[in-house]
Automatic annotation (TrEMBL):
Keyword Iron applies: no
Species name: Hymenobacter taeanensis
InterPro entries recorded: HDAC_classIV, HDACs, His_deacetylse_dom, His_deacetylse_dom_sf, Ureohydrolase_dom_sf
GO terms (BP aspect): epigenetic regulation of gene expression
Gene Ontology molecular function, alphabetical: histone deacetylase activity; hydrolase activity
Keyword Hydrolase in record: yes
Gene3D superfamilies: Histone deacetylase domain (3.40.800.20)
Start and end residues of each Histone deacetylase domain: 22-291
Family listed: Belongs to the histone deacetylase family.
Protein's name according to its UniProt entry: Histone deacetylase
Signal sequence annotation: none
UniProt entry keywords in alphabetical sequence: Hydrolase
Domain of life of the source: Bacteria
Amino acid sequence: MLSIAWAPLYAHPLPANHRFPMLKYELLPEQLIREGTVPESAFFRPVPPPDDVVLRTHDADYYQRLQRGGLTRQEERATGFPWSPELIEREVTILGGTIACVHRALEHGVALNIAGGTHHAFRDRGEGFCLLNDQATAANYLLGHPELGVSRILIIDLDVHQGNGTAAIFAQEPRVFTFSMHGARNYPHRKEYSDLDLPLPDHTDDAAYLTLLRNTLPRLLQEHQPDFVFYLSGVDVLATDKLGHLALTREGCRQRDQYVLQTCRQHQLPVVVCMGGGYSVRIADIVEAHANTFRVAADIWG
């Protein structure tokens, strides 16, 4: 059975332009339960991690200012969110969900977060709707607990936007390999350097995308020899996405997820999946594409 982190904290007041993207966090669990992909018991409510866990990744000054509302106007504007205590509670709970998923993935092979993938957060600042980097923090948590048996980590970032914060955080950490396959002209305009970046031209379709992925991932596994995987499965690669500029169909996106997750299963690699972005005009396109990730995981892990 799948194990899924879900923190229903998304109903706090937000400006109108932020409300639509947040709907998916409520609609997706409802869809998965209603259609029978997972039972309600598959979901667990995460809790915020201790401060020392966060501070293995994020600077103390930034984290303290974030908690008390001490960001400058420029810093707050860069995040894309107006500060509120509820927003910070949401962010640290999402981060706690990804860390909790680590333990469940080690036990069951896979665990998923109905959120996360906040890959634009740097050690000392937030950007692009990302305040704290959940996958980076969870990776450092693993490395800081050698008794868990993980010494080499692969982060597969297939969101349409480059994982610039994650790349910067692990730029000097050889135990974590960062792989980002993203739109070449998408945000951020100033890219960082992942261990492997594959920038894609506008209008890249299913065939080109999947061929490149299938030609790349086996080589990364062979060369890096990871014993744990974080997968960021953003659905902003869809042709219907307002911000993406790529041309994948929903079926192509599903095949992407199936290939990544099946490859992890075949190599007996525990994997934590986080949702990342999705900004199609129709909320149904976003929810269905994200639901496919969970359906594929349910099929593979039974």
